[in-house]
Amino acid sequence: MLKAITLSIISLLVLCSCGTPGGEDGAKKNVTRQTSKLETSTKVKFDCFEEGQCTDSFVLFINSSSEFPKYCTGYMADEQHMVVPSHCVTDASCSSIAAKTTNGRVYQCGEILEDQSQFNEQNTYNGNFTTIRLKEAIPGDYAAVSENKMSDFSYYQLWFVKKKLDNTGYELNRMRYNCRKTNNNVLFPNNNKESSAVAMKNCNIRDDSMGAGVVDTRTGDVLGLVHGSVNEDKTFRRFMHGRKGSTLTIATPIKCVIKKFNIANYNSDDTQYCDEPVFRPGTAQHSQKLSQLFRFNNRNISYVFTRLAGIGEDFLKYREYFALSYESVPYQYPRVRICEFQPFLNRSYEIYGRDFITTCIDSNLDIVFKESHFEKSFSIYDDFGDIALKVLYK
Hints:
The protein is mainly beta.
């Protein structure tokens, strides 16, 4: 009997503690919706630097794959294809990528189209690009691809995404009449002709502006996309009369970008230079191009190269310039002749006095020869153990 009474009391207590399914008033509990990292990243404010003055050709690229979102300048090749430097897309999947226009609309990624002909960015100044196919088309009035080539004496506009000074978001901005292609540049000897990477001066931008568009001031047509920069190199100061060097902006001609993704058809003969890398100093290819910028008295020069040396207690780096020629000798190492000279450069690493005949003084440098079944070469190293020049010979 006692046991039955105890069970009845426990049952009543359980019913009283449970109540109705939704609480005292039977209402359902609220469910909090989780916001994705991409959705949070797209809430950043983005507008035009001046209302009604911006082009539709450039948008805000958003990559939310990392702890902090990455923003770059996106170029709209057409209504559904956005092009950005590949380093902006690093480690990103399509679900973490979006584009935002100056009117506040957000467009999701549909597919990432990789560039199959990737340049080696450690040995070259070239940039790689990635095209994003968006799920929806972005209607707009897009700038045409310029049929003109970048000229040494023309000034260009730069369209780029810029972080606002008050840190309230980003804006699409325009740099007017400043950008200019460098000429007789010792870092970019390829600049004297059509090249797959072009060095420009007077148009420095930040990392979040990468992908900026180089635009023809007269026509508004797009000439190239910015993919990198070269910061001031103190080792050149002795050739600049002690002045500080400037930062150079590196752009890829727009035809080279379009060609890689087959977004539009162009004459292949007109864009052959797009597949030729622009090598950094220390390679034989760069030294051969550099030799074309100098004239020497009574000397036939094969290569011009720079070598880093150290001086003082802190072993401060400074740069030396040398010209080299060699003659093959049967059953012996080649006869190598080296001389040192002093060029005169401006702050943008351009040569003063292009037609000046340079005086070159004979010099002795250590040369390391290598002969095997796979390679015959000789190399010259700098004071820090890095190769200043490597030449392959037969």
